[in-house]
């Protein structure tokens, strides 16, 4: 009768030796989980995205130059300040001045109260007191375009406007409500209440 309690105690000790490590590991796991839940996670560094309607940088006394694949200077842009908008890779320039050199060497200049240009300056939009001048050459007279809004493609030698414009060709003057000028296609389209003043040709 006295042997049964000893076997029962030994049996319990054997079971404890088998399951003891498992219980200890479970307790450690619960403790680790509780600690992880209790301690706030470290703040992760984040990069704030730039809003699409805000510039990522501003330049004062702005100047930039664009070149073609052969290294030929094509466009120079200047301004009091310039803001770059990365969403569309646009530059918005105050007091914009432009000087472009065409493939055959003609000079085109432009000024405006402000302007917008794409990344390679292949398209320039002029706003407020916009003036575009194509200097005279040995074979063509001086051309001057005036308007509140002018859109220019310097390398393509195109000028477009959906607002009233003035066109001066040498001493001649023409006005209209819209303009599409394409030097390479040798076309000039002025629509809407067109008026012109043509000076008589000089006598030989």
Automatic annotation (TrEMBL):
One Pfam match: LptC
GO cellular component terms, semicolon-separated: outer membrane-bounded periplasmic space; plasma membrane
Coiled coil: none
Keywords: Cell inner membrane, Cell membrane, Membrane, Transmembrane, Transmembrane helix
GO terms for MF: glycolipid transfer activity; lipopolysaccharide transmembrane transporter activity
Segments crossing the lipid bilayer: 16-36
Alphabetical list of NCBIfam families matching this protein: LptC_YrbK
PANTHER family: LIPOPOLYSACCHARIDE EXPORT SYSTEM PROTEIN LPTC (PTHR37481:SF1)
Protein name: LPS export ABC transporter periplasmic protein LptC
Organism: Lampropedia aestuarii
């Amino acid at each position: 009768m006295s042997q049964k309690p000893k076997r029962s105690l030994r049996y319990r000790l054997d079971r404890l030796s088998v399951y003891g490590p498992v219980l200890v590991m479970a307790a450690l796991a619960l403790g680790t989980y509780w600690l992880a839940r209790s301690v706030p996670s470290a703040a992760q560094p984040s990069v704030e995205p730039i809003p699409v309607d805000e510039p990522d940088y501003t330049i004062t006394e702005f100047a930039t130059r664009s070149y073609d694949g052969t290294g030929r200077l094509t466009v120079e842009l200047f301004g009091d300040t310039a803001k770059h908008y990365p969403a569309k890779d646009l530059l918005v320039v105050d007091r914009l001045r432009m000087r472009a050199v065409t493939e055959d060497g003609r000079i085109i200049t432009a000024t405006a109260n402000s302007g917008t240009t794409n990344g390679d300056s292949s398209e320039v939009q002029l706003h407020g007191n916009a003036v575009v001048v194509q200097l005279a050459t040995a074979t063509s007279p001086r051309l001057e375009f005036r308007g509140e809004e002018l859109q220019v493609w310097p390398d393509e030698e195109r000028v477009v406007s959906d607002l009233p414009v003035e066109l001066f060709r040498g001493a001649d003057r023409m006005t209209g409500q819209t303009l599409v000028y394409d030097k390479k296609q040798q076309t000039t389209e002025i629509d809407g209440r067109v008026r012109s003043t043509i000076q008589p040709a000089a006598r030989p």
